[in-house]
Amino acid sequence: MFLLFRNYFLFLLSCAFIASCTKRISEGTSRSNVYIAGSNGNNPVLWKNNVAQILSDSTGSANQVIVSGNDVYVAGQTDVSGNDLPSGPFGLFVYWKNGVQNNIGSEVLFGPTGPGSVAILGEDVYYANTEPWENGKQITLQEQGWAGRILSTFTSNNDIYFAGTDSLSNVAYWKNGVLNAISQTTQGVFCIYVSGDDVYLGGDDSLGEAILWKNAVADYLKSSISGASVTSVHSIFVS
């Protein structure tokens, strides 16, 4: 049973929040539009130029927004009302295309793992929510195994990428289904961005220190505030 991350707090439109939800700008898209995905404290919301669009009447949140041509895709989760159990409520991984909800898989139990990632290649929609999906159907990646956790997806040119951990808990990414293992220690990777020939991964190590990998080389990120620490990386954008 997949675990699904739930946000219990109101998202504030701080710089950190905006950075985590900044849209990916596709070629030919107007750069004057600003998109933010998040929550109003109850419902998943997409803001476009400060105008809010509530994506679902159900509780939940939106986590990622990308623009492909004239289409806007948002990844997130929604609750399924009436299915609460002592162990917690059930919900769905979803994505919205131009405001229309598309469910990924069946109902799952909310938990600490999430949040869901979407990528577009032509007419194909890819999704990651601890498992990889293509057009609503679950797929299997090389050496993913039962222990692999796929948390992010990305497209560049005609290539499709997934990122997470493989069956040995190595930090890894898959390009067109082929495994590229990065680290031989138990670490987490939560996001991927590809720019030209460079592959960037973001995550943390087993001690809770933030790491940015560029082409398999790890860079530990440090806080500029004395006594503070950076614990994880959840979004990367290269310009």
Description:
- With 239 residues, the chain is mainly beta.
- It folds into 2 domains: 1-112, no CATH class; 140-239.
- The chain is built from 1 helix and 20 strands.
- The chain has a 5-stranded mixed sheet with strand order 1-8-7-6-5, with no helix packed on it. It has a 4-stranded antiparallel sheet with strand order 9-10-11-12, with no helix packed on it.
- A hairpin with a 2-residue loop joins strand 19 (210-214) and strand 20 (217-220).
- The longest helix has 7 residues, at 15-21.
How are the SSEs ordered, and which strands pair?
Elements: E1 3-5, H1 15-21, E2 35-39, E3 44-48, E4 51-54, E5 60-68, E6 71-79, E7 90-97, E8 100-111, E9 117-121, E10 124-128, E11 132-134, E12 137-138, E13 149-156, E14 159-165, E15 170-175, E16 178-186, E17 188-195, E18 198-204, E19 210-214, E20 217-220
**What is the N-to-C succession of helices and strands?**
EHEEEEEEEEEEEEEEEEEEE
Number of helices: 1
Largest sheet, strands/sense/barrel: 5 strands, mixed
- The average pLDDT is 83
Structural class designation = mainly beta
The strand count comes to 20
Amino- and carboxy-terminal Cα gap: 37 Å
Shape: globular
Low-confidence stretches: 1-30
Going across the biggest sheet, name each strand in turn: 1-8-7-6-5
In short:
With 239 residues, the chain is an all-beta fold. It is built from 1 helix and 20 strands.
Give the key terms.
mainly beta; globular; 2 domains; four-stranded antiparallel β-sheet; 239 residues; 3% helix; five-stranded mixed β-sheet
